[in-house]
Amino acid sequence: MSLKLSVLDLCPVPSGFTPSDAIANSIALAQAVETFGYHRYWFAEHHNTAMLACSAPELLIARVAAATSTLRVGSGGIMLPNHSPLKVAELFRMLEAMFPTRIDLGLGRAPGTDPITASALRRNAEDSDNFPQQLADLVGYLKDVMPEGHPHARVRAAPMGVACPPIWILGSSTYGAQVAAANGLGFVYAHHIVSEHAQEAMHLYRDRFRASALGQYPKAMLGVSVICAETPEEATRLAATADLTMMRTRSGRRGEPVPSVEEALAYRYSPQEESLRQYNRSRIHIGSPDQLRESLGALAAATHAEELVITSTIHDHAARVRSYALVAEALAD
């Protein structure tokens, strides 16, 4: 593929199934996309939701890395303010030691949940406003370059002597682009969350990139929501699940699993909910392989993305696997 393809897995829990089923689906999907030629498989971090089983991405990374052989596996992302930088450094050094040269560390600063849950996770309200220092501390532990005079300068992340995995900054605004560029890190823009600023953020990242010990040249990816089927009509039908799932998420209703197509089509949206559904729909690429070859290709060209990280909210596991297969075929050379 001239345009690399990767997966962002939120480990959705389909209605009628269990979190254990969702995790088994993720393992099976990773093994399938490896045969389709996908490059990476990343897990997101979300909390206090019945829709998703990805509260501990580091555990899912280890499980999928063990079940595959060529995929890079990582986080998309670890929400750094939720964690101690030292603990993140130790977790990812351990993963790198277990699966050398196959681990990615993607980082975000959003909570991955609602404000009350974030306060339970973080305990310290200052954590949410201190991302640059947390990032500096994490890099210090991973590269063994904690500055002299730092209160934890003598602390080393274990296991020691392990290479620093590639670090990526995830963002849905220009802030993440600026942080990634200033530190010589890779950048992933979350088009699937906020589509409006994709071109601006990706261009700003490349324009302001400064080489560092962490990266000598810019590396830019785009996170996109995609639903593909053999026909436009079937893709649109499958997208009903994503419509209702995202509407519930945006309105704070996280207590229900991912609905089936039938459940989603039977739902009656209020006028306010329908407006939100329409906005959410504008951020999803839905269609046949030919349609997605055109729309995804145009988006990648406009943003100069080198790689697409695809997330697909589809209730039926087989249809979800098929969607990734069709996208790979559509964008193959």
TrEMBL record:
<dbReference type="Pfam" id="PF00296">
    <property type="entry name" value="Bac_luciferase"/>
</dbReference>
<dbReference type="InterPro" id="IPR036661">
    <property type="entry name" value="Luciferase-like_sf"/>
</dbReference>
<dbReference type="GO" id="GO:0005829">
    <property type="term" value="C:cytosol"/>
</dbReference>
<comment type="similarity">
    <text>To bacterial alkanal monooxygenase alpha and beta chains.</text>
</comment>
<feature type="domain" description="Luciferase-like">
    <location>
        <begin position="19"/>
        <end position="301"/>
    </location>
</feature>
<dbReference type="InterPro" id="IPR019949">
    <property type="entry name" value="CmoO-like"/>
</dbReference>
<dbReference type="GO" id="GO:0016705">
    <property type="term" value="F:oxidoreductase activity, acting on paired donors, with incorporation or reduction of molecular oxygen"/>
</dbReference>
<dbReference type="InterPro" id="IPR050766">
    <property type="entry name" value="Bact_Lucif_Oxidored"/>
</dbReference>
<protein>
    <recommendedName>
        <fullName>Luciferase-like monooxygenase</fullName>
    </recommendedName>
</protein>
<dbReference type="InterPro" id="IPR011251">
    <property type="entry name" value="Luciferase-like_dom"/>
</dbReference>
